[in-house]
Amino acid sequence: MLEDGLKRAGALPNWAGLVKQDAAQWLDIHNLPVADVIYMDPMFGGERSALPKWEMQALHGLAGSDSDAATLLTAVRQKARQRVVVKRHPRGPLLAPPDLQVRGKRARFDIYLRSDESVEVPLRK
């Protein structure tokens, strides 16, 4: 479905594309950091009172479970120049202790900073 959508879009920039490979394996091949910020959005697991929309059910069927999310986070943290942001269920388990968290009603964002870099957060006026 993703490949078909990319073909139909046609007007995507040259850098856009679909890589059909395990993310941890792909990151292992690339020796240098691949991005300033890496965003992970694992599928929410656990019990629900209602099923998600059919599109999300179909995506979950294609992507499968995210039982390797913690392993992927370890690999991704080596490849991000500044930070990794992981979207989680507000009451979902941590993949690892985060450096920062942003909490909302429907999601929580766990932020993992590079341990070898200090990051200054500018103040807004």
Using the CA coordinates, give the radius of gyration: 17 Å
How many strands?
A: 4
Helix content: 25-40%
Stretches where pLDDT is under 50 for at least 5 consecutive residues are: none
Q: Which class of secondary structure composition applies to the elements?
A: alpha+beta
The number of helices is 4
Gap between N and C termini? 44 Å
Give the neighbour order of strands across the main sheet: 1-2-4-3
Shape: globular
**Percent of residues in beta strands?**
15-25%
* Sheet of most strands: 4 strands, mixed
The H-and-E topology, N to C, reads as HHEHHEEE
* Rounded mean pLDDT score: 77
Can you walk me through this structure?
The protein has helices spanning 2-9, 23-29, 54-63, 69-77, and strands at residues 35-40, 80-88, 100-103, 108-113. The chain has a 4-stranded mixed β-sheet with strand order 1-2-4-3, covered by helices on one side. It is an alpha+beta fold and 125 residues long. The protein starts with a helix and ends in a 12-residue tail after the last strand.
Features:
125 residues, alpha+beta, 20% strand, globular
Element layout with pairings:
Layout: H1 2-9, H2 23-29, E1 35-40, H3 54-63, H4 69-77, E2 80-88, E3 100-103, E4 108-113
Parallel strand pairs: 1-2
Antiparallel strand pairs: 2-4, 3-4
Helix pairs in contact: 2-4
